[in-house]
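dumping these here so i dont lose them again. two proteins, back to back, each one seq then structure tokens. dont judge the mess
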Amino acid sequence: MVRMRWCSEAISLSLSGTHTALLLTHVSSSFLNKTSVLFQFHNHNHNHNQPFFFKFKFNNSFSSSSSSISLTHHHLKPLAARRIQNSSSTEDENNFHDFVVVNFYHFVFINDPQQLVAKHLSFVESEGLDINGRIYLNEQGINAQYSGPSKDAMAYVNWIKEDSRFSDILIQISPSETGHTFPVLKLRYKPSLVQFEGGTSNLPLLDPSMRALPLAPSEWRERLEAINDAHSKDCPNRDYIILDVRNGYEWDIGHFRGARRPNVDCFRSTSFGLSQEEITASDPLSNVDKENTNILMYCTGGIRCDVYSTILRQHGFQNLYTLKGGVSNYIKNEGPAEWIGNLFVFDSRLSLPPPVNHPQAITEGGTTIPVSRDDKFAKCYICNAGVSELRHRNCANLDCNLLFLCCSECVKDLRGCCCLTCTSAPRLRPVLNGERRYKKWHVYRDMDLPGKNLYLIFKKQ
């Protein structure tokens, strides 16, 4: 067990049990203002007295009555430690404003994914990379979403591209103004690169002919403009269907014009085109001519479309097309043309307006395409009023935690809860305003939350 006594100038540590006594010999005096800091230790129980390094990441939690620090650490090898230690203080201060989020995936056969996971972990640790997120590998390839300082994030990208199996990966990068968008790094083997009912190991993901044909963003835009122009002239093109392969709540804050809201709350339960009945109201592919209808599929980054297109191919759908790189790649290249609203993302940012990925879109003629401000489609889940802030929030009731879209009036009236019932729940967190998100329960356990003591009494019974 490590006990820490700290102030603004120094930290002292004492170790119990059989751990070796350590002497802290290097601490930055301004560490309390940082999200991480490098410590240099000496082990005086060893003759060589060789210094070694740990990089600590702080999660500060302060209240009027108490202060606490929770931390995680990474043991750094001397080379990586020196690289961090020698960085200038100005660079350290600016690093927080140079965070990025990196997304990529690739289907390729990997003979020994467990060994490859170990290799990736070794690289991240040896280089002391400050990256957090989800990086999954298995026999079918890799799927990665992570955040970090630009230097660290790109170091991993450049290293992975040295592997010929991943040399042609489409890398997507977007800025993060609030530092890390993921709490920890999960780099591990996972049987399915995406969650889907029954898993994906039995799907022909490694066969390009079984996946949908990818369309470049420019070609996708041309097709959408033609389809939507025909619809606006009351001449719907029944040979095309724009299929949103995301969740309904993602559609609620942004989507392509002409795409129906998917009646799905989790991708793993998606079943478009799989119904045995001839007509299903909630299924846009119900009663569709599988041989002649062109299905244009899109999702955030592309992987869900690639996975689901193999399922549709197995069920007889012939003309399947996907948006290469998904919506994020489209907005980067084409701007918000044919897109309405924001883009939902599965990290702490939750919602990205098009300018985040594409500050301004310029046509070939030099005309600037304005960002879509048509948010009249977005409705409060509680009162059905229009929502101007295209960003979901979690219910303040910890035991509900529902992700929902809410107007400012309902946030105030229901104290951040999704319904009247949740307002009387035993574990209510404080109402969050703006773009803040709730943290894990342990962050709130020492706070005087309404009903907490009553909850703990019932929990013990």
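---- next one ----
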Amino acid sequence: METNWYTSPEEAAGGPSCCASDVYRLGVLLFELYYPCSSPEEKNQTMSSVKHRVFPPQFHLKWQKEAFFSMRLLHPDPASRPKIDEVLQSELLNELREKLDEREAAIDLEEEIVEQEMLLDFLVTLQQRKQEAAGYLQRDISFMSSDIQQVTKLQASVRRKGDSNSMNISKNDDFASSTSRKRIRRTSKENQENSRLMKNFKKLESAYFSTRNRAVWDVTQGQAAMEMREHQRRAWSVDFSADPKLLASGGDDGSGASIGTIKTKANVCCVQFPCESSNFLAFGSADHRVYYHDLRNLSMPLYTLVGHKRTVSYIKFIDSKTLVSSSTDNTLKLWDLSDTASQVLDRPIQSFSGHVNVKNFVGLSVLGGYIATGSETNEVFIYHKAFPMPAMSYKFTTTDPISGNEVDDNEQFISSVCWRPQSSTLVAANSMGNIKVLEMV
């Protein structure tokens, strides 16, 4: 049926096909392009009328220039139809060609703009990363310059102490010979130390900067997933909130949390989010206090807990409103935040004593009502929140290399304790690197 639509009158009469027949078919095609039909029936009826050059009224109203041109192409007399050259140079096709050229130019311009924007974004991002890297480098250099100054002062102090304690030495040849041999041995030792230093340089560099930065590790890959370098000095503590994407950190520069910074006058030794909350944060400070903040308003703490006499080294939440703090004043203190109208709390609901802690970080862990802490007597102490004295203790011992017997070593201290969740098992470690798994029975 479609073949009949495109058949010219001269071909329908049995005459040969010619260039004028192609012009006729072009007229049919032009009409189809500008007047689509909604159904096969409408299409069949409309195209039957087109063969007699009868167009729908809507086509004349909407596409006047196109309708007139199609009428010329569909003229029943082949000689009256435009020639191919006339068709190609017609006003209608020239307008379409110009519109197509404009569209292609617009597309090319749009693609060029997109490419320029992508290039600009790339250059800006590259500049930001390089500036960030330069900032990190400048910060690292500042860290090292400060540390070099401190080490230089310490070295000068040690040398002055050595000079003041030095004895008068004789200048005989034997002593000079002896001194020469010592210098030779010392030089050889220094060379060995330098060789050892360079061999482990990367590890030492990593260890040095790790004391100043925070890193999040992917344990499945065994590598750092990201590194945060906001602290200007050593970072002591980090803690994840109930939101796994939010963590807080505290350091010697007295600040924490990169999406918001809480500035303090003293070193921050520990940070802790309450159970099942990411809106509140508590931290212990070298000014002997514990601060409790609402992270939605960092201007001032909600509560300040006052009671310790020395640095607060650890804090742990027993529940969302009850926390225990540990200090180098030999005490633990239990605080209740649920029933207070004052911003300053100076009366803990319980104080725990019995362990020894005056200079080291000995660890703190809570499980329900039980509180575990270390002691500088190389012992683990366990308290219950209802009683101020220890409920039980366990002393680490050392094996004597000669007798093979277990002996006490009070020069060591417990450095870390951790309860296994929802169990009575406790892991503890001391300053010698000994780790013990303990069961509370």
